[in-house]
Amino acid sequence: MTRPPTARPVVPGVGRLGLLEPTAPAALREFGWDNPDSIPLLWALSRAPEADLALQTLMRMRERLGDGWAELDSALRSGTALRARLFALVGSSSTFGDHLAADPAAWKVLLRPELPTAAEVTADLLDAVAAVPEPGPDGAPSYHRAGIAGPEVIALLRKRYRDQLMLLAALDVAPTVENEPVLPYVTVGRHLSDLADAALTAALAVAVARVCANKPVPSRLTVVAMGKCGARELNYVSDVDVIFVAEPADTTATRLAAEMMSVASGACFEVDAALRPEGKAGALVRTLDSHVAYYKRWARTWEFQALLKMRPVAGDAALGEDYRAALMPMVWNASQRPDFVPDVQAMRRRVEDLVPAELRDRELKLGHGGLRDVEFAVQLLQLVHGKGDEALHVPGTVEALTALAAGGYVGRDDAADLTDSYEFLRLLEHRLQLQRLHRTHTLPAPDDEEARRWLGRAAHLRPDGRLDVAGVLDREIKRHAARVRRLHAKLFYRPLLESVARIGSDSLRLSPESAARQLAALGYAAPENALGHLRALIGEVGRKGRIQALLLPTLLEWLGDTPNPDAGLLAYRRVSEALDQQIWFLRELRDEGAVAQRLMIVLGSSAYLPDLLMNAPETIRMYADGPNGPLLLAPQPADVRTGLLAGAGRYDDPRRAVATARSLRRHELARVASADVLGMLDVPQVCEALSSVWVAVLEASLQAVIRASEAERGAPAPADIAVIGMGRLGGWELGYGSDADVLFVCDPRPGVEESVAVRWSISIAEQVQRLLGAPSTDPPLQVDAGLRPEGRRGPLVRTLAAYRAYYQQWAQPWEIQALLRAHQVAGDQELGLRFLHVIDPVRYPEGGMSAEAVREIRRIKARVDSERLPRGADPATHTKLGRGGLADIEWTVQLMQLQHAHRYPQLHNTSTLQTLDAIEEVGLLEPDDVALLRDAWLTATRARNALVLVRGKPSDQLPAPGPLLAAVAKVAGWQTEDASEFLDNYLRVTRRAKAVVDRVFGGA
């Protein structure tokens, strides 16, 4: 609607009429409307949604009418109804302006005092094709046969259909100009559907004439409307969805159906049969038995939801009723299907994903708070409760809302508010479509002031105080969209809350059975337990119970979208009860929507986090957004380490110091795991953060134990001690379920006997292990020194000289391999570095590892593959020891280090990922091979971490397809709802990596 700016006309008064076209004054003089007698006409013209557009159409009509203009002018001067209809119509729709300019005499259609009945509309369109009734195969007059069947029938039917549509549109927009009655939304939708029914009937008459010529119709064929037409809530411009049923479903029936679609699509609207069984790949026409067999065996939940709106509209009426009677019972049993909940949730998410992000705020139909939100919610409630309540067996959205309110499934006020917002949004949709008779649901851009002003006027809005029409439109759109968003959650959950606690004196209450049924349909596997949690939450005394009642509708909706709503609701109850004395908790959820939504996602996704959050509740406050993004991402590993060491360093008692370190670790684990579940951190960031906090806890614990020992001895420590990280700790690649593999090394201070130094160091190491390994509700802190020389049979601590002697004389290939990940992590830094210098010649041997040692490494790996995989584990999906899993990648990288690190210092690295980068840099492997290994390592690590987050305990085995795998896939960041795709991707990635491993590690 945007027009280049033009100068305002110089003729006085014309600008005040909203006419900006330079030719407007001349046109009004030519009409004879430049005198006082024409003021009512000018006033009415000024109130058209776009006065210039209306004037342009009138100018075109006058030119075509010639002498006939006088009759129209007289009718306009004498009749306010015609004036309102014509000016509003041509000021709202350029397409109807073109229609009247092409056939200006059609203005007389607007003289009809009221809308025709459905029978009158059908008779008019049948008359357009000269159709006469004709008995069907069973002798009943189920068909008409057109007397006009040539190509000209399309134009004739289009003209008559457009005239009928024009009359409805004129009556619909007339209140914009004069004080004409407003057509209710329900009336508009029903008349549009009646008009579509008539068009389908006339198109079928043409199809009968074309396919059967002068022969009797051999097939019983019925046309079943679906979607908005079936519900009698059609738009001005919409596809008409249909399904065909025939007896027999032979080639003649198929030709009739195809010909009918062609005629109706060419003359009136697109006819779409894609909702039929098997969609576009299925037969266009089926028998009733074939339809029944399909819906019994193969139909998905969305197909039953679509059948909610079915309605026979043309052809054999008796066959149509037989179809309805056979299939409707299946519709009302759909909510009992085992896949009902995931199907419904997946369908809703697919619909949301169809809307581009940049259009979501302008999308009337699919945007958040749009028409589809209302329709989806209403249909779901119908499916849930319709089996036991026939009053809900209605196809229309407004009808269904009324029935749901009458049955107590939604509050009456909520139903009335939702109906009001739904009808307002549909009104805007209708006006947008009328403009050019194009199918659209997109609001004008915010900077298109003229288009928004036009839309506001066409929707019967007026300036309000300081707001012009465009401002009023913006305000109303925001108000109604916000109300739909609010009521969308309330519609499902407010009645549930009312069923467990009296919230208002006039509140309607669901029965316990209905409440349980509704919770089950919303994704809760144990609805009775969920009702118990709701009773406990709402039953809190005083203000807390009231806040819970206010919060829960939205919280429950967010929980319903998580992998495990039941566990999430239980966790929320536990967290609420644990934080009962924390006055900030409920206030934070009430005032910070991001905090509440993120908390529900975390609680409904992870069994690892609830206990951590109860013991580190301040983490919940970090779910808020700060000026630089989510607060969860603010702390850096170095800052966390500094804070943890400072906190533990305030205590001389090692128990208190370690308890403080544990507390700070708990907070950091809760922060990192929360950010991970919410998709804010990638795999390397998670590994670095977990490794950093582990190292800080080790350092703090070691310092505390040494301080206590020195205080008890009254003398300095007899030895320096360092902790060497091994395995994933040494590579700074810890996961949630990883232990801390370490070596303890000591060095006697001057004048101290080695035996004294070693005994003291062993006592220190044992105390650290004991304090960190003490029972706790937190994730365990196991310090494992099993990789030391001679394994668990050897001394826990050795001197630096003893390590040097052992590795020079006795080191086995597997021990050398283990040293590749040795890195100083805690204790005396200088001693740790000296240890690394001692082992460098061992782990990076001059000339590379011998062929015999390489064979030994390969033999050990083969033994690990055959013996260490747990009984019953699937080698294809075991993230650690499975094919292409973590062990395969890490052993391959380490073997290449043993063979080539003496030549390439870049390979002197304890991180698998960084070493892979170095391998690519020096050209030891092709970039594609490195990419496959890197992708497999990241994929397996991400899956392994997700397993711990979901299950709450260490696990390496991906589950079989089912709810647990779906939860793991979601936490691992898989973007689609189909967990089998996540599993297929894992298998594909690891299979390709395994081929590289076999070639490189196996030496092929």
Structural key phrases:
five-stranded mixed β-sheet, mainly alpha, disordered N terminus, Four Helix Bundle (Hemerythrin (Met), subunit A), 5 domains, 14 strands, 1004 residues, Beta Polymerase, domain 2, 6% strand, 59% helix, elongated
Would you mind describing this structure in some detail?
It is built from 42 helices and 14 strands. The protein is mainly alpha-helical and 1004 residues long. It folds into 5 domains: 23-344, Beta Polymerase, domain 2, CATH 3.30.460; 357-505, Nucleotidyltransferases  domain 2 (Four Helix Bundle (Hemerythrin (Met), subunit A)); 524-632, no CATH class; 635-843, Beta Polymerase, domain 2, CATH 3.30.460.10; 851-1000, Nucleotidyltransferases  domain 2 (Four Helix Bundle (Hemerythrin (Met), subunit A)). Helix 11 (251-267) links the parallel strand 4 and strand 5 (271-272). The protein is elongated.
